[in-house]
Amino acid sequence: MSAALTADRVEWHLWNWQNWMTHCTMPGQYPKRASGGIRGYSNFDVETEYEEGDRVAAAAVQGILDGMVPAQRLAVYVRHGITRQVFYLRVTIDEAYAAACLVLAAQLAHRGMC
């Protein structure tokens, strides 16, 4: 793992992504409260801001997963319950998942999402 991104932090990003994938929360959904119409002003509460940060982080993880080799992406999908179908791979799911976590740690650190 990257020095800036621990294994626990990678697991948090994967947990957050899993929640985003399984709870149908789309990025850009309407906020809980309106801004009031003043240009450049927002009336978001702190919880809404945190939720938006979580959505951005989940979308970043999805983008990184989309760029991985299929075995790594499939291992993450299977391990986090997104899909149950497993195809035969040249490596085990555990090996592919470990490699995917290394790629994810490096890419998240590169994007400054620690």
> What percent of residues are in strands?
under 5%
N/C terminus separation: 12 Å
Radius of gyration: 16 Å
Number of H/I helices: 4
- Give the domain tally: 1
- What class do helices, strands and sheet pairing give? mainly alpha
Major sheet size, sense and barrel closure:
none
If you had to describe this structure to a student in words, what would you say it looks like?
This protein is mainly α. The mean pLDDT is 82. The protein has 4 helices and no strands.
Write a brief caption for the model.
The chain is an all-alpha fold and 114 residues long. Helices cover 57% and strands 0% of the residues.
Keywords for this entry:
4 helices, mainly alpha, 114 residues
Write the layout of secondary structure elements.
Blueprint: H1 7-22, H2 46-66, H3 70-79, H4 93-110
Helix pairs in contact: 1-2, 2-4, 3-4
